[in-house]
Amino acid sequence: MLARWAGLVVRRRWWILSVAAALAVLAGVASTTLTSRLDQGGYDVPGSESVRANAAAAKALGDHGVDALAVYTVPAGQSLRDPATVRAVQRKVAGLPAAKVAGATGWWQQPAQLSRDGRTAAVGIRLRVTGQGDQLADWEAVQRELDGKAGATYGVRGLTVRFSGATAMGVAVNAQTESDLKRAELVSFPVLMVLLVVVFGGLVAACLPLVVGGIGIVGALGVLWVLSAFTDVSVFAMNIVTLLGLGLAIDYGLFMVSRFREELHTGAGAAAGGRSGDKDADRNADRERVRAALAVAMRTSGRTVLVSGLTVAAALSGLLVFPQGMLRSIGLGGIAAVVVAALTAVTVLPALLAVLGYRVDALAVPWGRRAGDRPRPTGRHARPAVRTERGWGRVGRAVMRQPALVAVVVIGALLLAGTPFLRAEYAEVDASVLPKGNPVRTATEQVRDRLPAASTDAAQVVLVGTDGRAPGQQAVREFAADVSAVPGMGQVAPLGGKGDRVVLAAQVDGDPQGEAAQAAVRKVRDLAPPAGVDEVLVGGPTASLVDTLQAIGDRLPWMLAVLAGAVLVLLFLAFGSVVVPVKAVVLSALSLTASFGAVVWIFQDGHLIGLLNTEAGPIDASIPVLMLAVLFGLSTDYELFLLSRIAEAYRAGASAKEAVVIGLGRTGGLISAAALLLAVVVGAFALSGLKFMKLIGLGMLIAIAVDATIVRGLLVPAVLALLGGAAWWAPRPLARLAHRLALEGPSDPDPDPEPGAAGRGPAPASPAPGTEGEPEADREPAGTF
After folding, report:
1. Where is the chain membrane-spanning (predicted)?
2. What span, in angstroms and rounded, lies between the C-alpha atoms of 737 and 576?
3. Residue 464: beta bridge partners?
4. pLDDT digit string (tens) for 197-241?
5. How far is CA 490 from the centre of its chain?
6. Measured in Å, how far apart are the chain's first and last C-alpha atoms?
7. Coil, helix or strand for 502?
8. Which residues, including other chains, have CB under 8 Å from residue 748's CB and lie 6 or more apart?
């Protein structure tokens, strides 16, 4: 099928490229409005007690609720109690557009919004609209009205204003996200270009994976734009999905271009015939060679890219079992981004290769041909080849001498590196994800430290009366006393009420997201409702974290089942073995262990934290789940490329150990190059100003490095050597089923030649389908690692 698709691509290459360009432009234009459509939340568990408590409190408090806080400060020696200062702020607040602002409450109305020393105070602002995009746009307009280098605007010397609250944080996160994406592109693309030139030895070939990567970026953002019309999409999905779309598209482009060039010069293209000296005949012969090389590249690398895309998408589908909107939106967007990357690699890239033909080698760099290379006698387009076993082939040979020792040492090292994860602590996403010094983060810290009554860290306890009647005052006072008596809870005071609901604000001692605070909230929830109260609901950040951890713990087994089940099925269909898929799942889990441990060791324990320009603290509860899905898919992706060549050599008659050496020698360099390219993309995102993205980026960087070197280069060969031929075993009924449903089935017949080509050439010899596109066992193309 893929070979026939290659024939269609050759015939319709200009049509395919035109449609792809139009779709890319459309997606790029749509993505310019993407940030205003994204959701800042998505961390809450729908239907949980904390969500119901927060909704009930918002309804009960009515006008006392706020969307954002304007936080004012004055220098030492001044006071916000000064009448002139109060009047200046009142005039500014009164001038806010009524079409955008539903109400504002200042410290002159709520004394709790003024600090004891009188130097810090807040104005609570409630917006009219509730829609995410419109609300952020309205808040940006309000912020511009209140800001403006406050001293000059208000006429008060030394007065400054910063902004806090969910809406202000949303605007700040959007701005930081856009800045991070631009910086990541500016940093990663030049570095990727240099590395690809080194890999391919030519400028034209190096540009092709970047073209696929660029389409992957705009395609991923376009997909998010479409998804945002049907469901809430987290703002963090923008970074994660872009990272996946760019990284995988470049990797897939690398595999496809490598295989096409190999077949063009030393494989199917060379076998299609030499040059005759007749210009027209030679032109048709060139077309035939390009068509033959592209057909084999699609049957092999193209099929592997599709299987890889399915595997990564299946891993990301594990995020869909969680109720949190943030995880679900990243799962949906990630699946779409992987599909875009894979389809681009087997559609747009082959069309470009069909247009370029032998010009894919144009603009070669000096190291493109190495001294001592001997051209093969297949015409002026022949590529050099050398016979040697080096690099990863030598590593594989060394591992074969002591596979048991290698396996024990590597497994022990990975488990040891993962031990810090056993003491992981978790938190909810708040303003601390913003970089130090960010005005919104500074304002949030000022409110927490100096205006605790206005802080959102307090737990909200909602008492719902029976029969639609409000709870009695005596019952409320008694229950407030019971709450304050719970270890870990501080002062409890009424916030207000409406109808049958009364809301209490309960301060939490110490870190509101620490273990002690979580235990205190659980104990408050266990208190019996007082007389006249039908239900007690506990909300707030600590309660939300408790519900999040509970939901993740409940759904994690289902996610693991989806991950493992999908990978087991796909790898079974790819290789016809029941042992290889189990080995892949176990080793991928070991690979992730080291990454999770490193994340805790760095970001929670604080080692090397100064180099990252952030601070130590608990890890967001969603990050390990997100990393599990993404990294599990990527690690299985590299496993697929390695095992394809090992299986090919084994089925061709090599012994189990020799097949491992041959497979590692053929794939090690290309996997290393692909991992290095992906590491550049991930590393650029690790420079993000958002702690959330910094943690994910560095965690992925560590996982990629460990997986592509220690696991794929040492542990996988060692385990396969120990298993021997048993690695490829399957019960006879399953073996027959795998043969009938094989994702890497028999070679497709050659497609019809392009009109004008000089007839059908001989069927090109090719390795087993599903291989990733490395040179023959005794050859390594010039310009590659």
Report:
1. 186-205, 210-230, 236-255, 304-322, 334-360, 404-422, 558-578, 585-603, 623-643, 664-690, 710-730
2. 8
3. 501, 535
4. 888 888 898 888 888 888 877 887 888 888 888 877 877 777 777
5. 39
6. 32
7. strand
8. 1, 2, 3, 4, 295, 299
Angle of CA points 176, 179, 182, to nearest 5°: 150
SS3 489: strand
Instruction: Round to whole Å and give the CA distance between 15 and 320.
Output: 36
Domain contains 220: yes
**Quick one: which H or E segment has residue 249?**
helix 236-266
Alpha-carbon gap, residue 6 to 749, rounded angstroms: 11
Q: Which of 165-179, 359-373, 396-410, 627-641 has the lowest mean pLDDT?
A: 359-373
Q: DSSP assignment, residue 714? A: I
At what angle are helices 716-723 and 656-686 packed, to 10 degrees?
Answer: 160
**Tokens representing 532?**
């006249």
Crossing angle of helices 13-31 and 325-356, in 10° steps, is 150
pLDDT in tens, 146-161: 886 666 678 888 899 9
From the list 596, 605, 601, the residue with the least C-alpha distance to 631 is 596
Q: In what order do the strands lie in the sheet with 120-127?
A: 101-105, 120-127, 68-73, 160-164
Look at strands 160-164 and 533-539 and give their pairing. Answer: unpaired
β-bridge pairing 160-164 and 68-73: antiparallel
Tokens at 773, concatenated? 């596109």
pLDDT, tens only, 413-455:
999 999 999 998 888 777 778 888 888 888 888 888 888 766 6
Same domain, 222 and 344: yes
Neighbouring CB atoms inside 10 A of 389's CB total 15
Number of residues that make up the chain: 785
What CATH number corresponds to the domain at position 712?
1.20.1640.10
Contact in structure between 301 and 259 (CB atoms under 8 Å): yes
Sign of the four-CA dihedral 288, 293, 296, 298: negative
CB 214 within 8 A of CB 251: no
3-state secondary structure 737-754: HHHHHCCCCCCCCCCCCC
Could you tell me which residues come within 8 angstroms of residue 174 by beta carbon, excluding any fewer than 6 positions away?
Answer: 35, 36, 38, 40, 136, 235
Domain match, 405 and 452 both: no
Q: pLDDT digit string (tens) for 536-560?
A: 999 888 888 899 999 999 999 999 9
H helix or E strand, kind and range, residue 539: strand 533-539
pTM above 0.85, yes or no: no
Domain of 454 in residue numbering reads as 443-546
Read out DSSP for 164-175?
Answer: ESHHHHHHHHHH
- Specify whether 351 is located in the same domain as 416: no
Q: How far apart are CA 552 and CA 555, in angstroms?
A: 5
Q: What is the DSSP letter of 369?
A: S
Asked whether residue 580 falls in the same domain as residue 650, the answer is yes
Coil vs helix vs strand at 463: strand
* Domain end (from 699, 732, 765): 732
Query: Is the same domain home to 667 and 708?
Result: yes
